[in-house]
Structures are given as structure tokens and as C-alpha cells.
Amino acid sequence: MSTYRVCFWIFVALAALEVVHGIPVFLPWAFLLVAVTSQYLSTRAPRRHTPPPAVEVAAPVTGRWLALNSPADKVPSHGTYQYGQSHAIDIAAEPADGSRPAFGWWPLSRPARAFPAFGAPLLAVADGTVVSARDTQRDHRSRNSWPALPYLLFEGLFRDLVSARRVIGNQLVLDLGNGTYALYAHLRKGSLRVRAGDRVTAGQTVAECGNTGNSSEPHVHFQLMDHPDPAQAHGIPFTWTGVGVPANLETFTAPDPAPAVPGKRRLP
Q1: Which residues contact 114 (CB under 8 A, 6 or more apart)?
Q2: Which of 89, 108, 231, 262 falls 20 to 30 Å from 57 in CA-CA distance?
Q3: The pTM of the whole model exceeds 0.90
Q4: 210 and 130 in one domain?
């Protein structure tokens, strides 16, 4: 458990004791200060860590998609280096007919199946071995409206206090070799086609896009990292064969699966 979570729950316990038994009031607030400081430090670049060159892999999807929270625009792409997501990207299916529901005021939320990304096949980006695979968390309704945004932020904070798994949702981690691991997050419940220890080949369907964990709508969260456990990992830059690294709000079409050379590195 991270320093942030430990200190926060100690704060909660001491705050309750302060009310019931009158312990010194500074004690709980001292732990809260440590918790906030620890969480702030997680947004900063790790000391003495230089990201390696980008690793070229195939795209994890095919078809027309929209990029969100892209490392092409900023690093860390998600505002934090925590969970190895400094160079992560979010993508949502964006059909040319405009059938993806827009962010707005109403309705407050929609069922996951209302989004074209939900159930989309996810592909192995290179040959590799399955390190971990979990798909037992339920798919929840969307939070893609202005009134639902505060709820999403509060929910994300609570999920983070519980565990990294509740943030990432259903997940798949592939060992691509040469110290490179691929993480797929927010997978659809029950959609995994592989399990730990399985060998996969580039382009193989491994799971489906879902809406689990800290997710506003069904989308693919993809990242490369240098450790199989996101809680201990640093992010690794990536580039997708035939696509590159799409920028925020850039629509792109991912080609049909093509074999990628695991461990091949080049600058995008």
C-alpha cells in the first residue's frame, strides 16, 4: 500500500479518535499533510530517471478512433507519473457517422453499450507473454456529462484510496521482452481471451474495450512501462506502427493488424 493511502486512512482513524477520545488535534492533520504531500510528489518526474527511446509496437485497435490524454501533447499525459502512466494514451472509438455520444449536460449518464468503443476487440501489440489478466469488475454507466464530472473526480479519489486495481479497472499486462510491458486498462467484464502465462502473437484478439475502473466512458487506456506492476513502474514512450503517436483530439485510423518486432526501439 502506498504512503498516500496509509497516511490518509491513519488520518481518518485519528480524526475519529480525536472526536471520541480527545487525542491531540495536530496528530490526524499531520498525517493528512503527509498524505497530500506524497500524492503531490507522485505527479512529478522520478529523480534520476530518463525515459528510454520510444518502443515501436502495433496499435491495440483497428478502425477509426479519437485520441485523448496523449503524450504527444504533454508528459505526463495524465498529469501524474503514478502507475507508470507518464506516456499513456486514452482513445475512444469515433465512427465517421458521429454515433459516439457527445459530452454535454444531458443525459447525466448512459449505459456503456451506448458507446461504439464498448466491446471493440483489443489486439496484442506485439508477440509476448501474459503476465496478469483480470476481468471481474463490472462495467459501469458513463460519467460523460458536466453534472457527472464532479462525481467522477470524487469517485476517482476514492478508488485511488482503495487500490490501484480500482483505478485501472479490469486489466491485461503483456511482457513484450527487453524489459517492456504493455498495459491495457478498463477492459470489459468477462472479455479476456487469455490468462496469465499464455503466449500471444501480434494482432491476436486478447480482450474487449470496456468501462471499468476510473473511466468516464468506454475507452482504451494503453501504456508501456518498465515493470509488470503499475504501482512500481516507470512509463516508456511508444509509437504505433502506421499511426505514430496521435495528439489530443486527433482522429486516426488504425490499420489492420501487422506483426511488430518486440523490443524494437526508435524515436517517433
Answers
A1: 101, 142
A2: 231
A3: no
A4: yes
Whether 7 maps to a domain, the answer reads yes
* CA–CA gap between residue 177 and residue 70 (Å, rounded): 24
Residue-number span of the structural domain to which 246 is assigned: 55-254
Directed axis angle between helix 3-21 and helix 26-41, to 10°?
160
Closest CA to 185 of 166, 161, 203: 166
What is the average pLDDT across 101-118? 94
Between strands 238-240 and 55-57, the pairing is parallel
**Both 81 and 164 in a single domain?**
yes
| One domain, residues 18 and 129 | no
Are 243 and 126 members of one domain? yes
Q: Contact 121/208 with Cβ under 8 angstroms?
A: yes
User: What does the block give as the cell for 102?
Assistant: 457527445
**In Å, how far from its chain's centre is CA 40?**
19
Residue 76 has pLDDT above 60, yes or no: yes
Regarding whether 130 and 18 lie in a shared domain, the answer is no
User: How many angstroms separate the CA atoms of 55 and 267, rounded?
Assistant: 8
Alpha-carbon distance 157 to 68, whole Å?
Answer: 20
**Same domain for 156 and 68:** yes
**Residue 49: its pLDDT value, please?**
65
Interstrand relation of 121-123 and 89-93 (parallel, antiparallel or unpaired): unpaired
